[in-house]
Amino acid sequence: MSEAAVVEKKSTKDYLKGWVPLRIKRYWFYILMTAFSLIAPWITVGGNHLFLLSFDKLKLHLAFVQFDMQEMYLMPFILMILFIGIFGLTVVGGRVFCGWMCPQTIFRVIYRDLIETKILGLRKRIKNKQNDPDMSKVENQVKKVIAILLWTLLATVAAADFLWYFVPPEDFIAYMAHPMDHMILVGSLLGIVAFLVADIVMIKENFCIYVCPYSRVQSVLYDDDTVMAIYDPHRGGKIYNDHTKLFSKEQDIRAAEPASECTACESCVTVCPTHIDIRQGLQLECINCLECVDACTTVMGKLGKESLVRWSSDKEVIHQGGKTSYFRPKVLGYAAILLVIMGILGFMSTTKENMLLNINKESRLYSITEMSESKRVDNAYVFLLQNTENKDHKFYFDVIAPAGYEGKIKIAKPTEPFTARPGTKKKKVVILYTDELIVDDASKDTIIPITIRAYAMDEKERIVVDRHTTFIFPRKDIYDAH
């Protein structure tokens, strides 16, 4: 045997040594994401969750900071980060979100690959996703029922986990102990479970192809540097002319293009969960799961050759124009937008109010009371105060009057600090007064702008809020008439 033959034989034998299929890496990523999604709702810091949008308690928890529903202006920024992040990810890596992070894909892998194939043996091989099980056999019918029951159980856990981001787990468990008192929650749980069962068992990948709008959006986001699963026609040969398949056998491909390396084994087709042929080029149905890359790598690796289907870009594979550019203007633009939005969100999160206060004047402008040595002018207000902290606080307030009126407008009621409990709104009738002739105007009532500075007695430096209102002093003839 020649030296060249020995080298070739060695390279063929060792080509796949140490290679880990992308499918296995994907599975590990699924496990990490699933574990995080299940554990995250249970993690609290100071009673606050990582993320919780509670419609029950009208609260938003974000990064372990609690916000009141009046601070829901933060939600649009969170949604912008989510969508722009996904769009930016698509520009870089195609539908990598669909293949590696989307719950739909993860659930289908759990049901089809784990339950149906590995546990029950209803499907023979993970690598064959095209042939459905023969349901004419009673044994397979029983296995199908068991598979659906197992998935229903897991779907219930998934539905509960989803609801934990809207109803904290501790409350969810307490509510479910008395289901008749919480029928909306029970109905939501059952509705989500029913959807997940119908989606994963019956709709399958048709959801990705026909229902999900993301596949339509991706086409306008791609460019020549977008990384995705791509078949190399220069090495493998041209299999399709537009939508028409030219060859289905290796000898036919070789007859037309002698240098073609594609073996027409169609392993890349058999393994595809969305039932496409990657050799046809970019298709909306491709979710970038990279199953076809693994399949071709296995086949070509045994021949001592590089895979014909690669996780690469049109620039490298189709146009052969050099290395993929990851830090291109479009990507940097998305990154810049994300950083700006995250900066705004971070700044606005740090300016949250630990106390919410609304001040409304009563319909009566003022009242005048005859005193022993003077007259007193009262203005009445309604304070609506909410403590957004997680513990009780005693609150009181000061009146800040403009220059010339300092110390002349005082508090008549309440005379003592009052306690506000967490998350509850407290209504207080407040009366301010002056017992001095602070304005001598015979033509009209005088509107004096004042500031109410409310604060927590125990944390005056941190929990303080200013609100602007007015104090009205009567014109002189009305004042003198009393």
Describe the structure.
The protein is of the alpha+beta class. It has two domains: 9-42 and 94-321, no CATH class; 355-481, Immunoglobulins (Immunoglobulin-like, Sandwich), CATH 2.60.40.10. Helix content is 41%, strand content 20%. It has 17 helices and 18 strands. It has helices at residues 3-14, 22-39, 75-93, 96-100, 103-119, 138-163, 169-176, 183-203, 206-211, 214-218, 233-236, 250-256, 267-270, 291-302, 314-317, 329-350, 476-481, and strands spanning 44-45, 48-49, 51-54, 59-62, 65-68, 228-231, 240-241, 244-245, 309-312, 355-361, 367-370, 375-387, 393-400, 410-413, 418-420, 425-434, 446-456, 464-473. Strands 10, 11, 12, 14 and 16 form a five-stranded antiparallel β-sheet that branches. A four-stranded antiparallel β-sheet has the order 15-13-17-18, with no helix packed on it. It has a three-stranded antiparallel β-sheet with strand order 3-4-5, with no helix packed on it. It is elongated, with a radius of gyration of 34 Å.
Key features of this structure:
single chain; 482 residues; alpha+beta; Immunoglobulin-like; 2 domains; five-stranded antiparallel sheet; four-stranded antiparallel sheet; 17 helices; 18 strands; 41% helix; 20% strand; disordered N terminus
